[in-house]
């Protein structure tokens, strides 16, 4: 029983690639699309979701033997809503600009299917440490898809990364493709990410 | 009256839940395989929206807002928990009604009926409503200044969502006969189709009623 046994490593790294919550399990699409027009909000959103998933998983895992089965959904929702409220207040206090950019999507982490999915499928059956690893893994699996889509959209849409303009590319007219910052391209780029992911991992 | 009409049209076409804000994507992608079930889910979502948004509006303006309960106290940080509680309660009610009056629809919606509770479109509509209370109705067609506005906004958003899911289901029914590259099949091509539909809906963005 070691903290990083191979089973635990599997729990942590599985969601990053083969069992990715966004591209394989199709969870948490809404926010994955909406916050990716630039890289910075995508990173902040990915980290917020990782933190919330990890801690919600731990809390529910600790409570799993005391909560009656019938009211577990309500308990899960309350735990998640509390964590989201905390994260949203922290963001407002320390990163106000980003929290304005994210607008309602911070609140919508409550209804992010990844959270409920992990709580139901993993935290209700496993101990706190495994659940913590699973939460971190799923959160990071979600985050890297967001970062990938955000990277492409900011690079091609405004020739900048994290708000810094890239010197050579910004002279080229193609890198100011306004289409990329529109909602429609988020869907198409995510479709392409899924295509690439499935082409690489056959099965 | 004019404001209500433009709010209604805007929330269906310009601020469409799916194509402009990506809200409710999970069930949107999963239930849009046949037109009939898609229509049923669309109606259920519209109904839940119609009830929850006005209730959340009243909660926000009469209970949570600044100086509502106690002078000098702003409780709006509690809005997430209260809104989700209202939504979860309403979804339970809708589930019982659907099970009683349309068992076939109940069976075909399956797990996605209780999942309306965590449908981002419902929560999203309440959160957008919360933002729009502060806008001035004289200058912005998006402002929500009363229960009537909240009701119209909910109806418009619901109809917009219904329209989007029925349209996608119709396309996917036809798409079953096309020859899509293997890795792109299923989810990948659906995303690209939704992207193209979203582009088509961008034409409405200059709409002024």
Describe this structure as you would to a colleague.
Chain A is an all-alpha fold and 203 residues long. In chain A, 66% of the residues lie in helices and 2% in strands. Chain A is built from 9 helices and 2 strands. Chain A has a two-stranded antiparallel sheet with strand order 1-2. In chain A, a hairpin with a 2-residue loop joins β1 and β2. The longest helix of chain A has 31 residues. The radius of gyration of chain A is 18 Å and the shape is globular. Chain B has 209 residues and is mostly helical. In chain B, α3 packs parallel to α6 and α3 runs antiparallel to α7. Chain B is globular and about 65 Å long. Classes of the chains: A mainly alpha (203), B mainly alpha (209). The interface between A and B is large, with 44 and 44 residues.
Annotation keywords:
heterodimer; A: 203 residues; 9 helices; 2 strands; B: 209 residues; mainly alpha; 8 helices; 66% helix
Mean of pLDDT of chain B: 82
Q: What is the averaged pLDDT score of chain A? A: 80
Output the structural class of chain B.
Answer: mainly alpha
Number of helical segments of chain A? 9
Q: Between the first and last Cα atoms of chain A, what is the distance in angstroms?
A: 32 Å
Structural class computed from helices and strand pairing of chain A: mainly alpha
How would a crystallographer describe the biggest sheet of chain B? none
Low-confidence stretches of chain B: none
Q: Give the amount of beta strand of chain A, in percent.
A: under 5%
Strand content of chain B: under 5%
Order of neighbouring strands in the sheet with most strands of chain A? 1-2
Oligomeric state: heterodimer
The strand count of chain B comes to 0
Q: What would you report as the Rg of chain B, rounded to the nearest angstrom? A: 18 Å
**Helix content range of chain A:** 55-70%
Number of strands of chain A: 2
